[in-house]
Amino acid sequence: MLESEIGIEQVIEDGGDGGEEPARFEWVQQRKLSAVREGLPGVAAHALRMSGGLGIVKEKPATAFIRVHPRFHPHSAAERGNMPAVKAKAAIFDLDGTLANTFQLVFDAFNEAMRAPLGRNYTPQEIIARFGIPDAAMIRRELPREKWAEAVDVYHAFYERAHDMVKPFPGVPEMLMELRRRKTPMAIVTGKGRRTMQTTLRLMKWHRLFRVAICGEDVAKQKPAPDGALAASSKLSVEPKECAFIGDSPADVRAAKAAGMISVAACWHPVYLSDIKRLEPDVCAFAPAEVLKLFD
Question: Are 261 and 243 a contacting pair, CB within 8 Å?
Fold first, then answer.
């Protein structure tokens, strides 16, 4: 039992309250037992953390299973009242950390750009702390003006050259294809620069999926200001209250709320989970397929 590490309580076999054992449980497999011991990264662990759910961890060779009571399972969101009353008509997505797992590429490209002028490496935490503005602006903020052009060129060249490391989060391609099949208007609103936004959309073959793509260079105020979100809804010709804004960061949730949109936390990416929980988004989606429920 690893309750001290993952902050859960044991589910008593009679259901914990003297009643009969629940008729249905969901078993979620984690591939590596060590991952469980390190804090249960992955959808199942985040579902437990975010919902305050109860569970049992059973150990098997190189495998761990989490038994989650259905009341707390992330796919029971609609049953728990975790879906807003208004159905969405358009989907607005953040890009980095929501659709594509680009963080490591950004870390590596940023350090490649900083190596010659500064001779140092930044930690992932230091780079994440600088997120929220276009990539080129991040670089310029660290360097004297005479170093700007070369460092930005190095960053962009590395970003494209090493982009093969970027993968979509599991379930994202299927979610996007289903939204496209339903003819749901879709937009991107990202804080990154236009060049890297276009690179990622093109190399992921997503550039034809989105009617609108707004980058950090297109707005005067970055997220959490609602400027980008409101510009996207206007270009899509959909009222803000009928737009779902899906993102993994606190800035995304705040931007959605400020714009009067349905705020959807992309909880399949763990970096900001504890901060997002405090913001009380309208929906916590632990898998991309859950986003589709907003459009049923």
Answer: yes
- Mean pLDDT along residues 251-270: 97
Q: Are 191 and 134 in contact (CB under 8 A)?
A: yes
Among 151, 148, 86, 163, CA closest to 116: 151
The first and second tokens of residue 22, run together, are 């629940």
Q: How many Å from the N-terminal Cα to the C-terminal Cα in the chain?
A: 39
78-92 confidence digits (pLDDT tens)? 434 456 667 899 999
pLDDT beyond 70 at 169:
yes
Q: Phi/psi of residue 107, each to 5°?
A: -60, -50
Question: According to CATH, what is the number of the domain 90-101+166-295?
Answer: 3.40.50.1000
Spell out the long-range contacts of 269-274 with Cβ–Cβ below 8 A and sequence spacing 24 or more: 269/97, 269/98, 269/101, 269/169, 270/41, 270/46, 271/97, 271/103, 271/128, 272/248, 273/46, 273/49, 273/50, 274/49
Distance CA 284, CA 214 (A): 24
Q: Provide the β-strand partners of residue 192.
A: none
User: For 41-69, what is each residue's pLDDT tens digit?
Assistant: 343 443 333 333 333 333 333 333 333 33
Return the DSSP state at 38: T
Rounded alpha-carbon distances, angstroms, from residue 205 to 34, 40, 194, 248, 262: 35, 32, 16, 21, 27
pTM of the model as a whole: 0.75
Q: SS3 of 226, please?
A: coil
Domain segments of the chain: what residues?
3-75, 90-101+166-295, 103-165
Report d(CA 55, CA 25) in Å as an integer: 10
Tokens at 78, concatenated: 């609609």
Helix (H, G, I), strand (E, B) or coil at 186: strand
**What CATH number labels 103-165?**
1.10.150
Give the Cβ contact number of residue 94 at 10 Å: 26
Give CA–CA dist 31/98, Å, rounded: 22
Instruction: Identify the CA nearest to 289 among candidates 264, 261, 253.
Output: 264
